Amino acid sequence: MTALPRLLVALSLAALAPVASAQDPKAPAPAREIRAQLVAVDTAVISAELAGKIELLPFKDGERFKTGDVLAALDCAIHRARLSKAEAALDRTTKKLRTSQRLGEMKSIGALEIDLAAAEQAEAAAEVRFGRATVERCTIKAPYDGRVVAAPAKRYQYIGEGQPLIEIVSEGALEIELLLPSRWLSFVKPGYRFDVEIDETGKPYPVEVTRISGRVDPVSQSVRIYAVPAGRFPELLAGMSGRARITPPTPS
Q: pTM for the full model?
């Protein structure tokens, strides 16, 4: 038999052989790769609550801090002076109120004078509370363990109220965000596990779904899901991205 007839016979046999394809309902579904991104669970842009000169800004971009560490401090000399003045006024009005109350017991003054002294003392106490709250706002402390990701302000710079001082992210607590076809909600639920290969490290990491967005995009028929690393991996940082490998179950 020549080469050409042998080739035709081989092609005919191959055509008759059963082939597992996407059209075969019992064929295993191929794994799909979905882009995923790591994001910090807690992130914040810390802004100045008062206008003033920056006195302390100890952490730079990339540096870590602990809960309660001072992230920034403003020159608070004027506000402390005002607080001292308010505390002196409170001391004076408190003594005046006590004297008025004793005089009232002796019927030397009327109730109106006592009420006025009490009002003055209450006003002075309010000024002290306001002054203490203002002084506290001069110093900004870390709300959690984290890392600095941006520090647009500089020490000794005068900054206005509401201007950003430092941007931070929480340390360790990361989430993985990704968009999945909404039809996959039939098997992707909280507790579902899969692997994500991170581009920056070149390694796969096990993750577990923790929550699913409450809305499906009707145009793209996709839904956002959130997962967390199933373990502790100090090398992972917010902003890293990679590929999630998810295999839909085989149709029964």
A: 0.66
